[in-house]
User: Which sequence fits this backbone?
């Protein structure tokens, strides 16, 4: 990252190569839209490049990356139009495997919907914890809150999801 | 216990406290159910697939980064230059533009004696002829002949 700040293009390429997946995962899981997630990730890396000359490795780079992606995600939803739900077509004559697949699809859709109903910071905290294995410290730094606040965001997010997904939790 | 349970679920407790919570769970069905709920939730959350990173994403980022670097190089020079340097650069640019404008004006302005000759001999259409053309040569001859007349 420091090399990228000195104008080393290959160093920046390496930063992109190593960190595009977690950035993409966070953006897509939060926004649920491929194009928006792509725009956010592109912009995140460009902002990192702009700030590279001033970058000081005081924390994990991933935390810094998540902070930028989180900010862009939050900005994005302020401008966002509702994304139409994907309609799953009914098969003509479903066999057991197809029914099972449909149930799984419905379950995945229910989870996505439940996540979108969380307040933005709770959603980000849940995604970082459950999908990126971040701890309170990292979540706090990425969301620019205290560790205690990160813990509360997770606890509240979890409680809300358990209520919204009660049907699926019983099965 | 609720706060410690949340930290336990999030893997944030030190080992000694984890053991203490696990000890508690053995005798508390309410907390045990709470933990099981959280485990079921974690499994549900893990069931959402995520599309793979778009294969062209890195290349698009690189392309935009290259464009940005080009803009930064020129903008950066101007920002980094001292005031005398900026003044000198502005002056050079102004002189170059002025000279260029004058030269192109001179080229497009017809030579006055040739214009007069074209008028005198009714050869208006020759007046705008380019340098080195037959029409220009003829007009030059005519205008020099006019100069020689008493």
Assistant:
């Amino acid at each position: 990252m420091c090399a990228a700040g000195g104008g080393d293009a290959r160093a920046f390429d390496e930063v992109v190569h190593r960190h595009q997946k977690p950035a993409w995962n966070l953006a897509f899981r939060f926004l649920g839209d491929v194009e928006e997630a792509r725009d956010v990730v592109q912009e995140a890396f460009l902002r990192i490049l702009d700030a590279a000359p001033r970058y000081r490795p005081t924390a994990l780079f991933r935390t810094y990356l998540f902070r930028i992606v989180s900010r862009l995600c939050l900005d994005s939803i302020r401008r966002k139009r509702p994304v139409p739900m994907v309609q799953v077509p009914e098969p003509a004559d479903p066999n057991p495997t197809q029914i099972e697949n449909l149930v799984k699809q419905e379950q995945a859709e229910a989870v996505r919907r439940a996540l979108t109903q969380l307040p933005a910071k709770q959603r980000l905290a849940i995604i970082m914890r459950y999908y990126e294995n971040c701890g309170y410290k990292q979540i706090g730094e990425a969301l620019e809150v205290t560790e205690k606040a990160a813990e509360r965001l997770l606890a509240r997010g979890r409680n809300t999801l358990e209520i919204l997904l009660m049907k699926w939790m019983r099965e | 216990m609720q706060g410690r349970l949340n930290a336990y679920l999030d893997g944030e407790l030190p080992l000694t406290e984890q053991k203490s919570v696990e000890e508690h769970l053995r005798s508390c069905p309410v907390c045990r159910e709470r933990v099981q709920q959280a485990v079921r939730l974690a499994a549900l959350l893990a069931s959402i697939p995520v599309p793979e990173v778009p294969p062209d994403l890195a290349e698009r980022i690189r392309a935009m980064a290259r464009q940005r670097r080009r803009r930064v190089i020129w903008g950066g020079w101007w920002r980094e230059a001292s005031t005398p340097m900026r003044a000198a650069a502005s002056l050079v640019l102004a002189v170059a533009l002025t000279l260029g404008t004058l030269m192109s004006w001179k080229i497009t302005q017809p030579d006055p004696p040739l214009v007069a000759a074209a008028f005198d001999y009714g050869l208006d259409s020759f007046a705008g002829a380019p340098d080195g053309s037959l029409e220009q040569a003829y007009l030059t001859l005519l205008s020099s002949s006019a100069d020689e007349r008493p």
In short: Chain B has seven helices and no strands. Chain B has three domains: 2-46, 58-108, 112-148.
